Amino acid sequence: MKSFFKRVFIIVISIIGLIILFINAETVFSQQQDVPEPVFMNFTIQPPYIPTYHGRDPFKPLDNIDRSPQLLIAELDYHGVILLGDKTMALFTWKGNPTIRYTLKGRKLFSGSEKAIDGIVGDITNSQVVLIQGDQRVVYPR
What we know:
Elements: H1 2-29, E1 76-84, E2 87-94, E3 101-105, E4 108-111, E5 116-124, E6 128-133, E7 136-141
Antiparallel strand pairs: 1-2, 2-3, 3-4, 4-5, 5-6, 6-7
C-alpha cells in the first residue's frame, strides 16, 4: 500500500510539473510586438540642440594659442639700447614696415603689443646685442 501511494504521489507531482512547464513555455516563447503609439510618432533621433563652442578650440593644444606670425631675425633693423632704471632694452623695427617695433628685454623679444615672440631669444652685453632664432644668430655691435 505504501508503494501505491508513493507511485500516485510521483505521478501527481509529475503531472503538476508538466502543467507548470507548459504554462511557462507558452509565455516564454510568445513574441512581443511593438505597437507604435501616436504620442511618440513625431520624435526625431537628433538631439534637441547642437552645442556650439565659444572661445578656445578644445582640440588645439594649449601651446599653440596666440602664436605670433613667423618673424625672421634677419628682417629686423637694430636701433640701439636704452636703459630704464636697472633694465637694459634693445630696440628693433621690422624692415618690411618700420612702424612695427620690437623690444629685446629679459632675453625675450617682445612685439609692440607686449607679446613675447616665440622662438627668438637674445642677450645684451656691454659690447654687443645678440639675437638667436634656431641655429641662426645675428650679432649687432653696441
